[in-house]
Amino acid sequence: MILVNLSFILCVLACFKDVIVSSSIVTISNNGYSGLLIAINPEVPESSQLIDAIKEVWTDASKALYTATKQRAYFDQITILVPKFWNEGTYQPAGKETYDAADVLVAYPNPVYQDQPYTLQYGGCGEPGTYIHLTPSYLVNDSFVDIFGPKGKAMAHEWGHYRWGVFDETPTYGYDPFYYNSMGQIEATRCPVNLKGEFKVIDYSTGTTHDCQRNVQDGLPEDNCVFFPYEEQSSYLTSSFMSNQYIKQVELFCHNDKNDPYNIHNNEAPNEQNRMCNLRSTWEVILDSSDFSNVNSPNVEILDTSPTFRVVKPSSSKRYVLVLDTSGSMDGKKLEQMRQVVSIFIGQFVPTGDQVALVEFASSASKLTSLRTLTDQSDRDFLLTKLPKDASGNTCIGCGLQSALAVKPNTLIFILEENGEDPAGGNIVVFTDGEENENPYVKDVSHEVLRAGGVVHAIFFSTSASNDLATLVVDSGGIWFYGSDVSINSILGAFQTLASPNDGDVYSETFQVHSSTFDVDKYSTYNGYVDVDSTVGNNTVFTFIWDQYNIQIEVVLEHPSGCVYSTNHLANANYCTGQPLDKVDLTFKVVSFPLPGTAEPGRWRYYVSSAADRLQKVIASVTSQAADRSKQPIVVSSGLDKTDVGTGDAIVVYAQVSQGFAPVLDANVLALVQQPDGIVKELELYDAGAAPDVRADDGVYSRFFTSYSTPGSYGVQVTVSQTAKSYKATRVAGSRAPVNFGTIKADGSVSINPDGMQYVGTNDVTPVETGNFSRVVTNEGFQYTGIAVSEADDFFPPSAISDLKAEQMDVNDPNSGVALSFTAPGNDYDQGTAFRFELRYVIDNVTQLVDEFENCTIVEDTDVIEGNLTQPKVAGSKEVFLISTNGSFTTNQITLGFALLAIDESGNRADPSNVAPITYFYSSPVVIQTTTVDDLTTVGDLTTVGDLTTVGDLTTDANTPSIANDFTTDSNFTTDNYSTPKDDITTEGYFITEDYTTTDSYSTEGGNASRVTATINSILFMATLILYFLMT
Ligand SMILES: [Ca+2]
Ligand SMILES: [Ca+2]
User: In this model, does residue 439 exceed pLDDT 50?
Assistant: First the structure.
């Protein structure tokens, strides 16, 4: 418990990750994984004990993984990246490794998960996760073994989520912990069903358990009921790692191998694995991964699975070589725009201490400056004087790359290593507007760049990306952006993203809080505003870029209090302290207002006017840093599921909004997708748990994008702002290591795990309203390589429904029907409205819906009691259908499975939905319970039934007076120990007894005795019945 409290104290520290696309470089060959990167957050103090703990845990993990994969995989090479300020130990210099690209983060706790290991996993079945998060406390404290099992096994569980995209088989948030199996019996959600145990409610205050009650409505166990596995399982049990990894015998994954029926997948459990992977076992999904399909077959000869570890530290500064295109096509406006954005990158974005060099290329390339460390303003000013002013000639991108690597061609004295550093990990940023047309080509120099370890990024200032350069970018671990000269704010955003320190230190990160493009003519004033929130404010800069003439724009910036800063320096009674603040750069056509201190939170307004005779196109951008280290800034990161998309395929845009590790919910999240023609399409992203969004309310917002028009490169920006309801979440749905709440020992006694208590329920924390805020992030771009699409074309089917749920309307009524609920897909994936649904079902063999949907029985319109299969609602709406199940069955219950798909008006068919199985009762499973309830209405509170076995509890129940009324005329039962009624009841005459359970004892007082006896007998009788029922 001490650990928990400590966690909360430490949690004021921030930890996050900038890019949510998986940037893992883990590979597997000869059964060994290499490239695994474990990064320690900069807030974690230096600790050799922590390094040792990481090594020990992952050495164990390697062994567990080798067993779990049946000798197919282990961890061969692992790199540990320590923070750059750790300086007591001996660390090798890091190459490309960055905190943001790590597979495993070692950072202070997520306020909701505390020290529970978990994986950020928002992709579909079989898709990799974003990172595994471990806390230093988890790694170094042995006490966690009691809660999550041996750490190596817990890591193997998380690796399942992270690497192979399998999901939990235990009930995670939003999934039912108990269900009726096809025999009509209650089962705990788990895998396999042969993992045996009992259902208990834990009373942590007394350290005791009691049997679970059943709900009146559906007969399933009460809310606080927990599955307690037996500590000793059958010797056949070996699975499952995604279910109860803490059980001693669990060493493998649930599978579909009929030769081992004991550990076969449980496809009846209502868990995330069954929903997301459509009833497939975790082991099937794992074997289908590229790690194992036709490669890395089992190798029993690996005797030592211990990984080798490298411990590395990043260099203290980042290095950038800007490789700028000055070919003829850049001449004029484009060159000027490039100069503007690069001037802001150098002037504002690159953190102090980092290094920048400049190279230009056209028909050939030349170095403009060596790497220069940005120590003060003079260094930035010096670099700005070196920016190219002319453009002519051909485009030789390979020359530029070679020049980034070599001062003189062929000597390979790297610019990146001029200051004595290893070129590995240095950033080469290529800014180009065209296809290369001069030797050497990119493909001729790619190997040199890769060998040197440089990370290549590209900004394509054109309608298409150079394929070879895009490939090199991806291969080198860089990112590429696409921008149009129609509006350069996305390019500005790209430079903003590139300037991120990638080291996990959110307090040194610069955030873009506003970005907009607008026109100003001579006779009008444009006004806009920015909501600066209290989590940012340091080093806030308002920047305005204009494009016409050397006639500057006039800008008035209004503080939330009403005072102003202005480019007009004439006397004004309402100037803020510090006026004049503006820095006007006529060379680059940029006005900026670097605010002193911490910007006042609130709404800042700006007014822009121009004296030019022609329209001025103006870009406004506002950047800021965290206010102080006591308050985590709200952070947005975004990603795409791919960077290449063809005809008929959709791309998924993700954005994660968080404050520290806590998700921000109900935010207004928009993706702005810039087409090759410069037109921007707006797409709202949702966190509702409908495809493509895996989980509702986890702060990851997702949406399909299908609005392609022409082949070419598309840029993506994401803007996020609050809605009236935005708040920091109270809970997180996610892929956590299941908790050992306790076990049943071999002698039948219950062993409660006291440390499990903190993980009971949903771990709600108090919601915090965000207030007004705004953020802009610029994402990597993507290429559409399909055919041109016109308005009339319809290449896109509706999306596959991923959240179908089936429930019997009323388990007590055999004619109540099946309620189906799901989120409506659209005409094109999740856009628009589909044309109709095709709903099918099977009896018993529910996997038939997965294997051969088309051969399953169709649900006719006449079977639909409520809803209309031919009138889908608009995408994102909640759909509910009530299906008739009238018929004559001789059994008490049957198993039904449902699945459906949507069809658009062009006849495009979606893939079938997840399969929703249901046990449908013709004979109510809660009949006995109902009778019991009726009989016990005098008690008024069925939840005390279990307590009746420990009779003393009854008197503590709030509803006791209703019992008391039956027994007595007043408050005899308000005292605290019913099991020794003598003590309690002496205050009134009639119940003076020696033995409460013996009915004659009550008759000693005559009068009320018979009524009392009857009632008590009734209660005891029913309690016996219920116990009997629970035991069967
Ligand atoms: Ca989500
Ligand atoms: Ca369509």
Answer: yes
Distance CA 68, CA 154 (A): 12
Report the C-alpha gap between 276 and 320 in whole angstroms.
42
| Cα(376) to centroid(ligand 1), Å | 43
| Residue 827 alpha carbon to ligand 2 centre in Å | 4
Q: Is the peptide bond before 633 cis (omega within 30 degrees of 0)?
A: no
Say if strands 893-903 and 916-921 run parallel, antiparallel, or are unpaired. Answer: antiparallel
CA 441 to centroid of ligand 1, rounded, Å: 43
Tokens representing residue 163 in the block: 């690497």
Closest ligand to C-alpha of residue 654 is: 1
* Integer Cα distance of 443 and 402 in angstroms: 12
Nearest in space to 516 (alpha carbons), one of 717, 723, 726, 779? 717
pLDDT for the residue numbered 523: 82
Q: Which ligand is nearest to the CA of 658?
A: 1
Which two three-digit tokens encode residue 917? Answer: 């199985």
- In angstroms, what is the C-alpha Rg of the chain? 33
What distance in Å separates the CA atoms of residue 777 and residue 719, rounded to the nearest whole number? 7
Is residue 162 within 8 A of residue 128, CB to CB? The reply is: yes
User: From the CA of 698, how far away is ligand 1's center (Å)?
Assistant: 5
Among all bound ligands, the one having the nearest atom to the CA of 666 is: 1
Which pLDDT does position 973 carry in this prediction? Answer: 38
879: left (phi over 0), alpha (psi -120 to 50) or beta: beta
Please report which confidence band the pLDDT of residue 949 belongs to, taking 50, 70 and 90 as the band edges: very low
| The token pair that represents 281 in the structure block | 């076992």
- DSSP secondary structure string, 279-314? T--HHHHHHHSTTTSSSS---TT----PPEEEEEE-
Q: pLDDT at position 970, please?
A: 31
DSSP strand pairing (768-769 vs 727-728): antiparallel
> What integer is the mean pLDDT of 144-171?
96
- Entry pTM: 0.84
**pLDDT attached to residue 96:** 85
Cα separation, 116 vs 305, whole angstroms: 26
Q: How close is the Cα of 17 to the center of ligand 1, in Å?
A: 17
Pairing of strands 553-558, 536-545: unpaired
Neighbour count for residue 260 (Cβ, 10 Å): 14
Which distant-in-sequence residues (6+ apart) come within 8 Å of 166 by Cβ? 125, 126, 160, 242, 253, 273, 277, 282, 285, 286
Cα 904 from Cα 796, distance rounded (Å): 9
* pLDDT value of position 621: 95
Catalytic-labelled residue, pool 97, 158, 421, 554: 158
Specify the length of the chain in residues.
Answer: 1032
Q: What's the pLDDT at 474?
A: 86
Quote the percentage of the chain above a pLDDT of 90: 57
**Residue with the larger pLDDT of the pair 160 and 1008:** 160
Ligand closest in space to the Cα of 908: 2
Q: Is 682 helix (H, G, I), strand (E, B) or coil?
A: strand
The Cα 494–Cα 873 span in angstroms is 38
* 656 neighbors 22 (Cβ within 8 angstroms): no
Question: 641-681, pLDDT tens digit by residue?
Answer: 888 899 888 999 999 999 888 889 889 999 999 888 888 99
Mean pLDDT for 367-382 is 93
Structure confidence at residue 347 as a pLDDT band (50, 70, 90): very high
Question: How far away, in angstroms, is 734 Cα from ligand 1 center?
Answer: 10
Q: Is 158 a catalytic residue?
A: yes
Give the residue with greater pLDDT, 674 vs 423.
Answer: 674
C-beta neighbour count of 300 within 10 angstroms: 8
Q: Which of 159-163, 183-187, 665-669 has the highest mean pLDDT?
A: 159-163
Contact (Cβ atoms closer than 8 angstroms) between residue 57 and residue 139? yes
Residues at Cβ < 5 Å from ligand 1 ion: 687, 693, 695, 698, 700
C-alpha neighbours within 13 Å on the C-beta side of residue 444: 13
Helix, strand, or coil (residue 928)? helix
Q: Which helix (H) or strand (E) holds 140?
A: helix 136-140
